Amino acid sequence: xxxxxxxxxxxxxxxxxxxxxxxxxxxxxxxxxxxxxxxxxxxxxxxxxxxxxxxxxxxxxxxxxxxxxxxxxxxxxxxxxxxxxxxxxxxxxxxxxxxxxxxxxxxxxxxxxxxxxxxxxxxxxxxxxxxxxxxxxxxxxxxxxxxxxxxxxxxxxxxxxxxxxxxxxxxxxxxxxxxxxxxxxxxxxxxxxxxxxxxxxxxxxxxxxxxxxxxxxxxxxxxxxxxxxxxxxxxxxxxxxxxxxxxxxxxxxxxxxxxxxxxxxxxxxxxxxxxxxxxxxxxxxxxxxxxxxxxxxxxxxxxxxxxxxxxxxxxxxxxxxxxxxxxxxxxxxxxxxxxxxxxxxxxxxxxxxxxxxxxxxxxxxxxxxxxxxxxxxxxxxxxxxxxxxxxxxxxxxxxxxxxxxxxxxxxxxxxxxxxxxxxxxxxxxxxxxxxxxxxxxxxxxxxxxxxxxxxxxxxxxxxxxxxxxxxxxxxxxxxxxxxxxxxxxxxxxxxxxxxxxxxxxxxxxxxxxxxxxxxxxxxxxxxxxxxxxxxxxxxxxxxxxxxxxxxxxxxxxxxxxxxxxxxxxxxxxxxxxxxxxxxxxxxxxxxxxxxxxxxxxxxxxxxxxxxxxxxxxxxxxxxxxxxxxxxxxxxxxxxxxxxxxxxxxxxxxxxxxxxxxxxxxxxxxxxxxxxxxxxxxxxxxx
Length: 686
Description:
CATH class of the largest domain: Alpha Beta
Structural class: alpha+beta
Number of domains: 6
Distance between the termini: 43 Å
Oligomer: single chain
């Protein structure tokens, strides 16, 4: 990391932000993770290390600022948490636990021999849930969501026997219980057996089953699933009647709320680690899944002093268990094609029990991973459920057997188009784009999703039906030609005149879509919702963006510089845009789509100011506001907030710790002011 340039760091932070957001969405919003906890934790740690080394490059969409995942696409109502629901930092070794205790002591200025107690309890592998009680009566239940906003599941938790509708005894006027909804192993096995018999979706783990069962729009579905709950903390409260974590949880237990039977109070690191090992030894026999032990500073006054850093409290830590392993046979390697054309190898296994779950599939990630492990069909392998979520291969026991290596496909197994890997990347992708049937469905689903065009009535089932009928052969533009199929559609199963009219009206309402949403909806690699908005803030109209992207792809240095001067847009995004417009079939879809829709000029509401029309760069540590707030201020004042310094930069706002950008500003003769000077500009603009 010491040898990285700022550009390299910025690009990696961008890739990490996108990757972590993708995996957060799969885990928290879709209950369908595709990587292990260990792999996810490695991504998060790399991001944290880079941000520590390059604090001025911390992104507005940094994973270090987020908890869980936003709930914009949920069918459930939103609930804003009065007190943010946070996540926990993780430890994977005894040494990391000792480091945690040492950090707590340093922060509190406690001597090594000063008394410091911690609670320790098993970490249930469930779905975080908040229960708000008023005068002892349950009035609202919500999932964690992104920590700030969750989903309203009040009707659903009414069907969970462990959750009392009325607390016992004398309770505060307002008390918000925090805990986990989970499913016992036995109930999970019974649910999957019933799902399989009914031809329904099978759940990968009890955690996924619990999340999928609780986050139902129809509470009757939740009622049919056997969910459990236990409490481990609290949020908003009119009164906290005890002074310690342990005593408070015991008080909550007296109110009728279940807490962990393995909750204990520890007076030393040795006590904490001994409890961790004790629970680990009994783990397989527990009736529910756990993935570690949670330690919390017991004294609530000390908790308040310690506070939080980023998205996690300083006073708590999750000590994770190592993954469980088993041997089996890799019977077949299948290739799946995703929305972006990525060819993902999936191993089909001889069924094997790992940690109480029968595993039949394992992700093989990419061709490099297959080559690294020397995997071939028929090999005997060792798998583990890292973090007890997604199985992964950790060893090939028969790699030395003299058999031909596995040949990774160089053409898409779905459409036959060439499959290639970008320079410096391990992922192989189909070049067929919207002509590839596998990508067609996913890209169309993405195009009409809430974050993109948000067309009501075009769900997965409808898209699949229309693809089957041949009505979406040309991709997104065909959506706006559905009116020609009106008569054919009326009378088909599930379609009456009213529902057809509603769908067509929803489509017609998107004839003048938001340009950033439309751009995001096209599914261009590396162009997420935030990047799409940043691009449109600079170019305002889609043809102007296309011209710049094509010019940059053709080698125009000025066009490339203009693109990379946009915050969050690096060479990777520029290359992805150029590649998109370089493909003839993508240009055809783009032109066809813009004949059907007319996005208005993309504008951000601004106030006239001394910096209107100018390009401003913020560098160093801002002390009175976040970088996000500063950029938002600049945009409201009609300025462009850029991430890098160039000849087009008009003003530098520098805080403590500003480095190379100040040097470049001096070389280019760019005006530099401090944070107080910026505050004066903002104040004068009113």
